[in-house]
Amino acid sequence: DGEEVVQLYLHDRESALPRRYKDLRGFARVPIAKGETKTVTFTITERDMEYYDDKQSEWVIEPGPVDVLVGASSCDIRLTGTINIY
Questions:
Q1: Which SS3 state, helix, strand or coil, does residue 46 take?
Q2: Which residues contact 1 (CB under 8 A, 6 or more apart)?
Q3: Are 62 and 14 in contact (CB under 8 A)?
Q4: In 3D, which of 1, 78, 84 has the Cα closest to residue 40?
Q5: CATH dotted code for 2-85
Q6: 62: confidence class by pLDDT, cuts 50, 70, 90
Q7: Which of 70, 71, 67, 62 is nearest to 81 (CA)?
Q8: Domain locations in the chain as residue ranges
Q9: What is the distance, to the nearest Å, from the Cα of residue 29 to the centroid of all Cα atoms in its chain?
Q10: pLDDT (tens digit, 9 = 90+) per residue, 42-59?
């Protein structure tokens, strides 16, 4: 028996401003037995999609594709998907 930390990252593919490649937006500590499988659910909110634009002096959400990355760490991504912001 042990514990797995599941991490959720977002990557904005078409950001107008320089941003980190992967932004950590959530995590969960999951107790799990050896060989066991569990489902972990994350909710991505509007706030998770925002970043601060210094030129506009406000929080903004840019349209375009955003990669959703889930894994044990930023270097150990095990699941990916894409959402489109309109």
A1: helix
A2: 31, 32, 33, 34
A3: yes
A4: 78
A5: 2.60.40.10
A6: very high
A7: 67
A8: 2-85
A9: 16
A10: 999 999 999 988 888 999
